[in-house]
Design brief:
single chain, 374 residues, alpha+beta, CBS-domain, 4 domains, 5-stranded antiparallel β-sheet, 14 helices, 12 strands, 48% helix, elongated
């Protein structure tokens, strides 16, 4: 029946209209016989109440609450009625489909029904108890992958932990021995001189190799996988799956390295944080009194919004530092106070022309007299 919704609807509406019209005719005849022509209005009023309560609202509410039970109960009855009224239903479907074609509507049963992203989002949100709340969040996060790019979740280049081949071999071995990551970026002098990734499976080889020349580590490296900036997360997830890779370097249009993105980062956007990275985010945002927070300004705006339930814009700069410098259009000094999109903040530390730490208050406050205010 669901394969031919036009026939199913035709049968239901045929039966519904036959019953309603027949009920109206019978009620009119009875009303005229007992009360004369003046009884037609009373019969119409009473029949309307009866049909609304017993034939429309009550059964349809029951069907909405228990759709599968009602549909499986009604299906055999509808199938039998479909055989009886097949010629009439076929004629009605033929006339209705041709009428729709006059208005440019294709009622072809082979045409698939498509839900828009917003319609699907509404279905998930309105599922209620049928879908656990945690599963709803996961499904909505999957829908949001199209609107989030790798730039939003990548580790910025200044926070990438790696091995510099210009360092002493003993220091490099100490880095490998104490590493908490499964892959270490290997480069010369700076990250733009990248050589490859050292996988954890090769850590032992580096620690046991007899050579004291750092250059010999290169033979243990895996090739670099580059990711263009602005790549949507759902696209990058499929690329990781296709290439059987888990980590990539994000590069801009000039080929400069912007940051590092991993498969784990994308999966956490769907299922939530499940690695030790969440603890580092918590270290970046610490409570300071009743209504203030000490924030590492390198934290991403999306993490800030997610943890503190704020509404900072995510379309522009990806970090709080970038958002502040764009807002002020200059590199501020320590002690500078501003209201960033409604959130009062005080710059605590500036280092290497970067805002390092901020004290933020979700409510308005009076800044100290020795601070600058914008």
């Amino acid at each position: 029946m669901l394969k031919r919704p036009d026939k199913l609807l035709g049968l239901i509406l045929l039966g519904n209209n036959i019953v309603n019209i027949l009920a109206s005719a019978i009620a009119t005849v009875i009303a005229i016989r007992f009360w004369g022509e003046g009884g037609i209005f009373a019969a119409t009023l009473m029949l309307t109440v009866v049909i609304l309560i017993f034939a429309e609202v009550t059964p349809k509410t029951l069907a909405a609450l228990y759709p599968e039970k009602i549909s499986f109960f009604a299906a055999p009855i509808l199938k039998a009625l479909s055989s009886i009224f097949h010629p009439a239903v076929k004629l009605i479907s033929f006339l209705a489909n041709n009428l729709l074609k006059l208005f440019g509507v294709n009622a072809d049963p082979d045409q698939e029904d498509h839900l828009s992203q917003e319609e699907l989002r509404t279905v998930v949100n309105e599922a209620g108890a049928m879908i656990p709340r945690r599963h709803q969040k996961m499904l909505l996060s999957i829908l949001d992958l199209e609107t989030v790019s790798v730039d939003d979740i990548m580790v910025p280049r200044n926070e990438i932990i790696g091995i510099d081949l210009n360092d002493d071999i003993d220091y490099i071995r100490e880095q490998v021995r104490n590493s908490i990551h499964t892959r270490l970026l290997v480069f010369r002098s700076e990250i733009d001189g990248v050589e490859g990734f050292l996988h954890a499976r090769n850590f032992g080889r580096v620690l046991e190799m007899e050579s004291s020349v750092p250059e010999d580590i290169v033979k243990f490296l895996d090739p670099i996988y580059y990711v263009p900036e602005g790549t949507p997360l759902h696209t990058q997830l499929m690329k990781f799956q296709h290439k059987r890779d888990r980590v990539g370097l994000v590069v801009d249009e000039y080929g400069d390295i912007e940051g590092l993105v991993t498969l784990d980062d994308i999966l956490e956007e769907i299922v939530g944080d499940f690695t030790t990275e969440m603890s580092s985010i918590n270290r970046d945002i610490q409570k300071d009194g009743d209504d203030a927070y000490l924030i590492d300004a390198t934290v991403t705006v999306r993490d800030l919004n997610k943890i503190l339930d704020w509404n900072l814009p995510t379309e522009g700069p990806k970090t709080l530092n970038g958002l502040i410098t764009e807002y002020l259009e200059t590199i501020p000094q320590s002690g500078t106070c501003l209201r960033l999109y409604g959130y009062p903040m005080e710059i605590l530390q500036i280092k290497d022309n970067i805002v390092k730490s901020v004290r933020a208050m979700p409510q308005l406050y009076t800044p100290p007299a020795d601070t600058q205010s914008y």
